[in-house]
TrEMBL record:
<dbReference type="InterPro" id="IPR006016">
    <property type="entry name" value="UspA"/>
</dbReference>
<dbReference type="InterPro" id="IPR006015">
    <property type="entry name" value="Universal_stress_UspA"/>
</dbReference>
<dbReference type="InterPro" id="IPR014729">
    <property type="entry name" value="Rossmann-like_a/b/a_fold"/>
</dbReference>
<feature type="domain" description="UspA">
    <location>
        <begin position="23"/>
        <end position="160"/>
    </location>
</feature>
<dbReference type="Pfam" id="PF00582">
    <property type="entry name" value="Usp"/>
</dbReference>
<protein>
    <submittedName>
        <fullName>Nucleotide-binding universal stress protein, UspA family</fullName>
    </submittedName>
</protein>
<comment type="similarity">
    <text>Belongs to the universal stress protein A family.</text>
</comment>
Amino acid sequence: MSPDRLLSEVPDADVEPAAPAALVVGHDGSDCASRALETALQLATELGAAVAVVRAWSMVTAPRPEGWTFGTVPSTDELAAAVEAELQADVAPLLQRFPDVEVTHRAYHAGPVRSLIEASRDARMLVVGSRGVGGLREMVLGSVSDQCVRYASCPVLVVRDRSED
């Protein structure tokens, strides 16, 4: 798949790169993503770099905002805020172990591959987890990590799930 086709899969995506010189790490709420974040935080400590934690979301995957009433459709801004709040809650326990690392949280209304590639455009490194849940081609890496390795403009560190060893 070409990068142009890959990046055109989500035409309405609103994705901006993370702050320059940051380590960008994708976090989908999984244990594997938390291991990738822990690795990124360890590297950031050594490098004196900031970390941008990103989560991709869609209307289907977004948590419903606090105070949401059944039968109403939350706005995109409300959904983005709910995703970012969920992301912050998911990573807070791990971030407490690295108080000296500057961390930002970003929720991207786009697919995970596009979000990670675009968010890391000006980053020093992209860190992703790999659960290996894709098809045969993605047995070693996951489908998202495989695409990030292929198309990201910065170095990509893939943190494997320890249970795969």
